[in-house]
Amino acid sequence: MTRHSRLPLPSPARAFRRTAATFCAVLMLAACTSPGPTSGTASAALDTALAGPQRTDKAKARDVYRHPKETLQFFDVETSQTVLEIAPGGGWYTDILAPYLHDSGTLYEAQYESPSPAAAEEEKANRAAFEKKLAATPAVYGKVVDGTLRGGQFNGFPASGNVDRVLTFRNIHNWIEDGEIDANLRAFYAALKPGGVLGVEEHRARPDTSVQTMITTGYVTEAYVIQHAQAAGFVLAARSEVNSNPRDTKDYPNGVWSLPPTYEGGDTDRARFAAIGESDRMTLKFVKPAQ
Fold it and tell me: Is 89 buried (19+), middle (13-18) or exposed (0-12) by CB count in 10 A?
């Protein structure tokens, strides 16, 4: 943990001015991030994307845990926006975002490249599979731009104040382990337009969980995410419990990977983990303040 120096308390007048300024900033952010007039059309377009044939039955079965419509609406994702998805994995959210943004928006995908040499081979294979998926169905994925994120730097597409939404789903624990969390958050901030939104979904740890335990279990505290996002310049605009799961006790031998869909423990306690479902998750909306 980083050690912070203690600062003198502000005077009452200064504290009042700071509180008033913060309140005004929050009001401005709320105005910037409220759903636009196309929200009704966007909702119908999102329904179409969710029901589309590009999504397998197996992927659709996970909607009950991941709540993609409610999550994307919480992040105020509209059809005409430029959206940057970080570390898409197999493309579970890409299958929704690509058709949703196809006609009037733009979708950038940033493949995360870990600084760990041990991860290179797996990342290379995963990216090859992802690009094969995109190439196989150009009518859906032909406009998707696939790039990279490494060392806090994007490559393959413009990412300097031109993006409306940066979205990351269940990735932050990896960046903590790699020591890349702060560099990545600064990159997200730089990529976004003023007033743009960073949407975060992540496995949620109990408060006061140590950083080492976050790394070994995959569960991260909300306080940690908020602290580091704010250090990068973001303002927390809203939280949602749409992806919460009170059945998740977060005390398993293989961490979050004991649960579906990974089932890292194999058949051991599989029925128990299936009954719990996917992990308890925070869903946080941060905003880059308007300059």
Answer: middle
